[in-house]
Amino acid sequence: MRATILPPRGPVAHAPQPLLAAHRAGIHRVDADGQTLELRAGVASAALARLLRRYGVTSAAYLSACNPYGVRVGAAANRAAHQALRDALVAADAFVFEGLTLDPSGARPAQPAWLALGIALAPARGLAQRFRQNALLFADDEAVPRLLWLPRSEAEYAGRRL
């Protein structure tokens, strides 16, 4: 079944623009089956399409558990959250590959993440929310990672330093 992905609405209006821009500009590198994929929001990926076909699945999510809501936490907390997310993805029967998100401007440090093949949109979104993330990338069988901004209230964004 193909997931229908609509452009983000509502909560994006409340998102701090620098944070939203950083998510849109991120370079998401994944080492999978001897190849390095570079995923970008809204850009079709032939390498991802091949990976989806190789594993016989029609969807993928790229998500992190580090730095909840974009607030930097210590290395130990990030390592624990990263491992807990991997465990949850494996429990969801996804094929899991480690990734690293890079900020092309260099303003934010690289952040570990996971590419999960075969996970549906609802469980991926639920895990991103459980690990207090602002967004995730989700791709269907067309292999175009779409940035999905997760709902939060305007008050939750107030007073944040970016």
Question: Any overview of this molecule?
Answer:
The structure is a single chain. Helix content is 33%, strand content 24%. With 162 residues, the chain is an alpha+beta fold. A seven-stranded antiparallel sheet has the order 2-1-4-5-3-6-7, sandwiched between helices.
Q: Secondary-structure map with pairings?
A:
Elements: H1 11-14, H2 17-25, E1 27-32, E2 35-39, H3 46-55, E3 60-63, H4 75-91, E4 95-102, E5 111-117, H5 121-130, E6 135-139, E7 146-149, H6 154-157
Antiparallel strand pairs: 1-2, 1-4, 3-5, 3-6, 4-5, 6-7
Summarize the structure.
The protein has 162 residues and is of the alpha+beta class. Helix content is 33%, strand content 24%.
In one word, what is the shape? globular
Strand content: 15-25%
Helical stretch tally = 6
Output the strand order for the largest sheet: 2-1-4-5-3-6-7
**Proportion of residues in helical segments:** 25-40%
How many extended strands?
7
Rg result: 15 Å
Average of the residue pLDDT scores = 87
**What are the segments in which pLDDT stays under 50 over at least 5 consecutive residues?**
1-11, 157-162
Structural class: alpha+beta
Largest sheet: 7 strands, antiparallel
In N-to-C order, the SSE pattern is HHEEHEHEEHEEH
Question: How widely separated are the two ends?
Answer: 38 Å
